């Protein structure tokens, strides 16, 4: 068993977002990576896909997901399941930050259209 204390979890800053790495291979997980992230108000998101199914569990605020030409708003308590190899983006259209937990299988990667595969640092 591995316990990752919140105070010991690494923090990663990006444009209009912060990710706190929870479970990941570098922190003892062999099957899944999980992180808590905050997307700041006005974050337009960026279109990308992931190589494995990804799950977002909303904790607070409101976000908007665009996938397969459809738009979905989701809020605290909602779960959004992104199928593997599906282009999507998550944005924060309001004035309130959006917080969620994301779960992605170990070894999965993200890829923007026309870009190279990238493993998010918080999932390593």
Explain this structure:
- Strands 1-2-3-10-5-8 form a six-stranded antiparallel beta sheet, with no helix packed on it.
- The mean pLDDT is 94.
- It has strands at 11-14, 17-21, 32-39, 49-50, 54-60, 62-67, 70-75, 79-82, 88-91, 98-105, 110-111.
- The chain has one domain: Sandwich (Jelly Rolls), CATH 2.60.120.
- The protein is mainly β and 124 residues long.
- The protein contains no helices and eleven strands.
- Strand 6 and strand 7 (70-75) form a beta hairpin.
Percentage beta strand: over 45%
Please give the alpha-carbon distance between the first and last residues: 18 Å
- Based on helices, strands and strand pairing, what is the structural class? mainly beta
* CATH evolutionary superfamily: Jelly Rolls
Number of strands: 11
What does the radius of gyration come to? 14 Å
Tell me the CATH architecture.
Sandwich
Q: From N to C, what is the helix and strand string?
A: EEEEEEEEEEE
Topology:
Blueprint: E1 11-14, E2 17-21, E3 32-39, E4 49-50, E5 54-60, E6 62-67, E7 70-75, E8 79-82, E9 88-91, E10 98-105, E11 110-111
Antiparallel strand pairs: 1-2, 2-3, 3-10, 4-11, 5-8, 5-10, 6-7, 6-9
Descriptive labels:
124 residues, mainly beta, Jelly Rolls, 3-stranded antiparallel beta sheet, 11 strands, 0% helix
């Amino acid at each position: 068993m591995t316990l990752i204390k919140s105070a010991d979890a690494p923090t990663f800053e990006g444009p209009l977002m912060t990710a706190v790495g929870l479970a990941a291979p570098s922190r003892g997980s062999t099957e899944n990576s999980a992180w808590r992230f905050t997307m700041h108000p006005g974050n337009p998101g960026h279109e990308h896909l992931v190589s494995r199914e990804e799950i977002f569990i909303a904790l607070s605020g409101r976000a908007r997901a665009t996938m397969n030409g459809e738009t979905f708003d989701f809020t605290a308590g909602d779960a959004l399941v992104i199928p593997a190899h599906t282009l999507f983006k998550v944005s924060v259209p309001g004035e309130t930050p959006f917080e969620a937990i994301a779960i992605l299988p170990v070894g999965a990667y993200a890829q923007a259209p026309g870009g190279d595969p990238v493993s998010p640092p918080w999932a390593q």
